Amino acid sequence: MHYVANCSLLFTEDELLRRPASARAAGFGAIEFWWPFAMPVPPDKDVDRFVTAVADAGVRLACLNFFAGDLAGPDCGVLSLPARAVEFRDNVDVVIGIGKRLGVTAFNALYGNRLAGVNPAEQDELATEQFDYAAKAAAAIDAMVLVEAVSGPKPYPLRTAADAVAVVDRVGAANVGFLCDIYHLATNGDDVTGAIQAHADRIAHVQIADAPGRGEPGTGTLDIAGYLAALDAAGYRGYVGLEYRPTTTTLDSLAWLPVRQRNSR
User: Fold this and answer.
1) Residue-wise over 20-46: b if at least 16 C-beta within 10 A, else e?
2) Cβ neighbours, 10 Å, residue 258
3) What residues are annotated to the active site?
């Protein structure tokens, strides 16, 4: 397995474009980001600055989120929202363009919340179409599209590994896979070890944080080492994103992970 720093939650002591270099200085060879812009189609100059910051830092961008709306506010993805269908498709072109320039191999598409007054079946049908559209675009650069279960109070319909894998199967594209986020699954009460064993062949990316609190491993009660061992035993050899909120500084929060284990690309 290869550990990558999520630079949307780690290294926030620095402004966003300095975080790739900070991750490299901390020993990481690869990073991941949520969508780093406020809009689905940012100005070209802003995209160029982001791409340059990653490339100049000498790290690989292993995973990038599609535009997901206002994550700090009411949104949790736009993929299944009828009024925002064009927004998502316009964003796909930008995301894949970044991916082509930086060699990104995985893109996370948050499903979107259930909407009052909208038939869930209509949202699910749209989501299938949007995942298929994104998957075809990602296939052109040999990349995956990820489906994630999420925790929290928002009316997000994918809560368990089985929920997310059902979407993977419904889309049916070879390059659509399950993002196994251990924190979200555990927080939702899912059987994480059982999910790993049942869906190992669908897992395309992993993210970790301890719970409760979403801090670094060792700050909560989750057996993260045990879950990673289960992934290894199941044959998972991909990326593990450190998607947690440091309880102190980022560098202090990394004490659990030896530097020699951070430099995989």
Assistant:
1) bbbbbebbbbbbbbbbbbeebebeeee
2) 9
3) 148, 243
Cis peptide before 212 (omega within 30 of 0): yes
Cα separation of 252 and 248, whole Å? 7
Q: Please report the pLDDT score of residue 263 as a whole number.
A: 87
* Three-class SS state of 97: helix
| Whether 109 contacts 146, CB under 8 Å | yes
Question: In the chain, how many domains are there?
Answer: 1
Give the SS3 label for residue 181: strand
Domain region containing 22: 2-261
SS3 162: helix
**Mean pLDDT in each 10-residue stretch from start to end of the chain (265 residues)?**
96 98 98 98 98 98 98 95 97 98 98 97 98 98 98 97 98 98 98 97 98 98 98 97 98 96 84
Q: H helices of 182-262, where?
A: 182-187, 192-199, 224-233, 250-253
Rg (CA), the chain: 17
Which CATH number characterizes residue 13's domain?
3.20.20.150
pLDDT digits (tens, 9 = 90+) for 50-100: 999 999 999 999 999 999 999 999 999 999 999 999 999 999 999 999 999
Angle at 21 between CA 237 and CA 101, to 5 degrees: 65
User: Of 193, 201, 187, nearest to 235 (Cα)?
Assistant: 201
Looking at residue 83, the DSSP 8-state letter turns out to be G
Q: Which residue has the tokens 């869930």?
A: 120
